[in-house]
Amino acid sequence: MIRPMTCPICDKELPPEINGESMLFPFCSSRCKQVDLYRWCNGDYAVVEPMTIEHLLEAEQAEGELFEG
User: Fold this and answer.
1) DSSP 3-state assignment of 68?
2) Rounded to an integer, what distance in angstroms lies between the CA atom of residue 41 and that of residue 44?
3) Which domains occur in the chain, in start order?
4) DSSP classification of residue 58
5) Cβ 10 vs Cβ 28: under 8 Å
6) Residue 69 in this model has a pLDDT that exceeds 80
7) No. of H helices and E strands in the chain?
8) How many Cβ atoms sit within 10 Å of the Cβ of residue 24?
């Protein structure tokens, strides 16, 4: 059985009108979206993988391929 999508902040089930094209997706409300933004700005979330020159070059090449194709 496929599990319904839930909000990553409050774990409420997303209403049917919130899908991949909604401005709120993947959150259930603008409040949860703002809580997530606050957590990023506050440093609660972080990208923990160290960025090396090789990683940056790979990312740049992948980005170029996306825009060329």
Assistant:
1) helix
2) 8
3) 1-69 (3.30.50.10)
4) H
5) yes
6) no
7) 2, 0
8) 16
Structural tokens at position 68: 């060329």
Q: Kindly state the tokens that stand for 57.
A: 């070059």
Q: Which residues pair with 6 in a beta bridge?
A: 13
Q: Strands of 1-69 (E only): list them.
A: none
Q: What is the pLDDT of the chain when averaged over all its residues?
A: 87
pLDDT tens digits along 23-36: 999 999 999 999 99
DSSP string covering 5-60, please? Answer: PB-TTT-PBPPTT-STTSSSTTSSSHHHHHHHHHHHHHTSS---SPP-HHHHHHHH
pTM over 0.70: no
